[in-house]
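Let us work through a complete example step by step.
Step 1: write down the sequence.
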Amino acid sequence: MTTRRVPFFPYAQLFLAEEKALTNVMQDVLRRGAYILQKDCREFEQNLAKFLGVKHALGVANCTDGLHIALRAADIGSGDEVILPSHTFVATASAVHYAGATPVLADCGPDHLMDPASVAKLVTPKTKAIMPVQLNGRTCRMDDLQAIADKHKLTIIEDAAQSLGAKYKGKMAGSFGLAAAYSFYPAKNLGCFGDGGAVVTNDDDIAHKLYCMRDHGRNHDGVVEMWGINTRLDNLQAAVLNYRLAGYENIIAHRRNIATWYHERLHGLSKLTLPPSPEKDVYFDVYQNYEIEAENRDQLKVYLKEHGVDTLVQWGGKAIHQLDALGLSSNLPQTEKLFTRCLMLPLNMAVTEDDVEYISGLIRKFYP
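Step 2: predict the structure and record it as tokens.
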């Protein structure tokens, strides 16, 4: 088998494929001198809200800030507990911590997402909110989580950083709770050229608070109404995102095709557990990542690297409860098992069917 190079995320290659169009988009912003909260940002916010089917979308500097100000807008802070999964990036917990609340960590289920049964056991009189993380381009079992929230009168704020466009029973990830935040980090399905994010809501009062909080507490007239921070999505990134959002359906379609190619070639291997194959009924997945579970994961990772294939173990190989510096140690057996087995295969807009054939062939050779 001839060795080929399959990078995990080839940033430069993906830019070069759209260099002329993207350069024109950025030059237009620069020539107008329109850098902060100008028409590009407003247009992106309007287009994003329309795509998601929500009333309000506001550009912010990153998803972490979006979650932070959403918690503050919902009056969640000191003395409150927020339940979130341990299988997520540390930023989810950081947003809770810097809002003044306490992160409480739930286990994940076989789908790698927050397990509602684990969440139900963690509710206390101090619990104020549930923060589902819509991970890897797939939506949590929101019916079950909503039932828990309704029973205990809890707020749902979604971390939808990895799942723009994913659906559960026809409803978009990020449209279930009081508010949600998205990430436009370059590796995301919809990525910009640095950090970027958005926070969305259907609640007019929350939207007004978010508007003020992202811009030093200032309202639409520039009057300071409340304490705020500086977390504005700049116009240059907004223009890039607006350009890419126009073609986002094609991005989703290609990513779902790649997932199908992997599934067709790898299903049936007893030593692997694959993500669900693309379907359109209950779940519509957008495949931010293709995260498998593999026996002898570390050896497989080395073997693929030796043959030119980059892979990734999410979060540096540790869930939040395994980060000693944070002091959030918990007994989460499913999450701990997952982190000995999980491995992400290359899935980006440069991946071809021939790449998937090559990678799958290597994996089948590794597991005779």
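Step 3: interpret the result. The two ends are 16 Å apart (CA to CA).
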